[in-house]
Amino acid sequence: MPQSLPDTTPPKRRFRWPTGMPQLAALLLVLLVDSLVAPHFWQVVLQDGRLFGSPIDILNRAAPVALLAIGMTLVIATGGIDLSVGAVMAIAGATTAAMTVAG
């Protein structure tokens, strides 16, 4: 059986974008377009001791989702992942909403 020579060419280096780069680029593009469409997009105003503005609204609306994401991350990290976790969170949210409306 003939012996083949080992391949001595160096391996080609390929540039790889970090994981999550397309999502980050899309977010930056959306923020850039919003800044161009609405010139006062980043403006935050203090009125009667409260903050108002687009960034504040975004943070207020993202806070509940962020809390759920942190909780789910802890569940996954501790190995307690279960398919019923999402259903339990949905039922808890619906119950809380019903109790809030009922007073």
Structure description:
This protein has helices at 21-37, 54-77, 84-102; strands spanning 44-47, 50-53. It starts with 20 loop residues before the first helix and ends with a helix. The protein is mainly α and 103 residues long. The relative contact order is 0.05. The chain has a domain at 44-102. It is flat, with a radius of gyration of 25 Å. Helix content is 58%, strand content 8%. The protein has a two-stranded antiparallel sheet with strand order 1-2. The mean pLDDT is 86. The longest helix is centred in the middle third of the chain and has 24 residues, at 54-77. Keywords: Cell membrane, Membrane, Transmembrane, Transmembrane helix. It is found in: Cell inner membrane. This is ABC transporter permease. InterPro entries: ABC_transp_permease (IPR001851).
